[in-house]
Amino acid sequence: MAMKQPIDKDVAATREALPITLLTGFLGAGKTTLVNRLLTESHDKRLAVIVNEFGALSIDAALITGAYGSVIELANGCICCATQGDLHRALQQLLETRGDLDGVLIETSGLADPGPVIQTLTMFRFMREIRLDGVVTVIDAENFDRNLESAEAAFQQITSADIFLINKVDLVGEEIPGLIEKGLRTLNPTARFLHCVGCDVPLDVMLGYLSQSHEGRQGRGTHRHGSHDGAHHNHDGFQSVSLTVEGPLVPERFDAWLDALPDDVYRAKGFVMFVGMASPVVLHVVGARRSIQTDLLGMGKTKGAAIVAIGRNLAAAELQAGLEGCAA
Hints:
Elements: E1 18-25, H1 31-40, E2 47-51, E3 64-68, E4 71-74, E5 79-82, H2 87-96, E6 103-107, H3 114-121, E7 130-140, H4 144-150, H5 152-159, E8 163-167, H6 176-187, E9 192-195, H7 203-206, H8 213-216, E10 222-224, E11 238-245, H9 251-259, E12 265-272, E13 281-286, E14 289-294, E15 305-312, H10 316-324
Parallel strand pairs: 1-6, 1-7, 2-5, 2-6, 7-8, 8-9
Antiparallel strand pairs: 3-4, 4-5, 10-11, 11-15, 12-13, 12-15, 13-14
Helix pairs in contact: 4-5
């Protein structure tokens, strides 16, 4: 399972890292359905999606604005490229021509152990240029037991996950998704869970990006996540909570606060100033996975903390009080 990374005040200055989401799951779980959503919906992010091959994707030809070898450009600004078995080369090509990309989604094959892919993403050659934002594992609720028993890869996909999408819940009894979640928690107790049909989940929960507007929100209110496009996806209960502290934080206290975040918090992101540091750093949290980087763009103006927590049924007052307890 993903291990948490302790907060370290000695953050090396690096180039603004490109966030990478790894999408895994057994054959037929619904990964390609989710990829097609990302590639065809209207949204305000420019994504690159890396797949093993184009054959499984059902992209409407009318949405394709250009095709260049192993790269397809789409009308919504996204690009899709085939690895042809060479993830390292595909990543290198993206980094050389990244332009204004907001992030990258990598879809593994259904029989793949995500471990080697994670090793590639975290290898020293890439550590200054990309950031493994999270591992999303799609679970087929209808065939969960069969998949887990038939392949070691399914076990590795489960233990590597930061977020689980328990998909196809409409095809099983009402009690089954809860039983699946209970079983998965015994193998991976730190991950977050979403039950869904057709992998219809909030994209800003699954994919993490940081914008200037996060710190610009005033107060400690909540914001309901609405639709991302004309399809009006309804994700009841999801909200974002803005949390602020005026003074610098003690790293050890902040680390303990992150450890204690409830399961209803799927991700947190923002800017944090630690005691003894001259400027704030950028924070990303997905489940127990954490990354903290130098704010190379100078977006963070806080002298303490400005964080957005995204989740479901969040207790804003409790989260705010806990963060305030991290202040020096």
